[in-house]
Input
Amino acid sequence: MHLSLTKFYKPFIAALLLLCNSAGAEVVLPKILGNDMVLQRNQPVPVWGKASVGEVVTVKFSKQVKKTTADTAGSWKVMLDPMSASAQGQTLYISGSNAIELNNILVGEVWLCSGQSNMQYEMRKNSKVRKPDTSTVNSPVDELERAHNPAIRIFMATQKNLLKPDAKHEGWSIAQDSALRAFSAAGYFFAKNLYQHLRVPVGVICSSVSGSRIDPWIPEPAFAEESYFNNIKVEGDPGKFYAKMIEPLAPFGIKGFLWYQGESNCFLGETISYTYKMQALINSWRKLWQNKNLPFYYVQIAPFYYSKSKGQVAYTPQTLPEFREAQTAALQIPHTGMIITTDLNDDINNLHPPFKWEVGRRLALQALANTYGFNKLVYAGPVYRGIKKKGSQIELSFRSEGSGLVSHDGKPLNNFIIAGADGNFVNADAKIKGNKVIVSSPAVTKPVAVRFAWDEAAQPNFYNKEGLPAVPFRTDNPLKYTYHP
Output
């Protein structure tokens, strides 16, 4: 009889124990929700966390009150209604069995930046570099001394800090002092330039890992969804950083993504495979945030002597141009944009070019023009459009000419090479004629192809008048890639 009663009451006892164990559980927030954060304006804003099963959680912010009940896994989420930008610090209240107050919350624009060491490149390193001799760079190196704008907020993610609750809710900081010294320079200068145009609070989340390939930032199922990888073994711990440093950030309200990575994959000699990896990454991140239109702006990597590096791949001076071509091909993915950095390395033996303020400015131009509707802004340098063969000359046409094509230093255009049917490329004369470039060489009487900046050391002087450099390209054997959503 005793055994049968025990068996009868066992489910009840288990449920009672679960209730008793969960009764003391407090409302817990993810690390990304904290004091000093910026909430994304003009769209529903998720607030979420953990609590006791069945616990009623109340969220109050800016005259809004939202209530929900924690589900059977103890998870809860509310959606705040879209809000206009506000630079006035407010308090976010979350209450259940306990009460949490998050203070000094602003409403504005939020971006997530990611990648490897060039995205991680800290602000403190900018203070150690000399000013470059180029009119395209718009900032001195003493930014740390004057950065005191309370409307710019930063959050630095690490491989550990997103996976454990923070009782003090201290992940976000105003972009100044020690917090800024350790933060992404490219991410900060993007925010600074965005603020100068929008005049609303800007929050930047940096989630990057030095030396990382693109592969660990992509969830493994995303590779399976790309037919290109059906018979290809993907290396590099797929999903490792995605699981630790991207997934825990969702569904925090953001406007878009910034990506500065590629050097580690270039060392693998990748070309078209990298384009499809970018496709997998972009699609998977947009899927995580349930928004297929989130903009994704990225950096084409800078000049560097890959051919002088030792590795399993036989590097040549064309290894980098071929990889850049793969990066350019990803522009076929909707709502993407790319900036060029051929002019932003003063030492081609250095894999980490110092002039991140210009990287941030150029990324901001992409966002301002393509996301925020500043239609009159020129946001990109000349992009190859087409070729016409005219006897001993080749005529090249471009888009993104801005107010005109120009030699940035006033000298003859450089880094153009030309070839005939034999495929033997030689240095070419290149002259601007209106919105075209005419290319020729006395050594090639019947030219068929032109290449521009097709060398790892190329630092060409071909720009538009707005000071933005042209995209490297070749007219022969271009990489074949077609985007499939």
Remarks:
- The two ends are 64 Å apart (CA to CA).
- The chain has twelve helices and 23 strands.
- The mean pLDDT is 92.
- Residues 2-23 form the longest helix (22 residues).
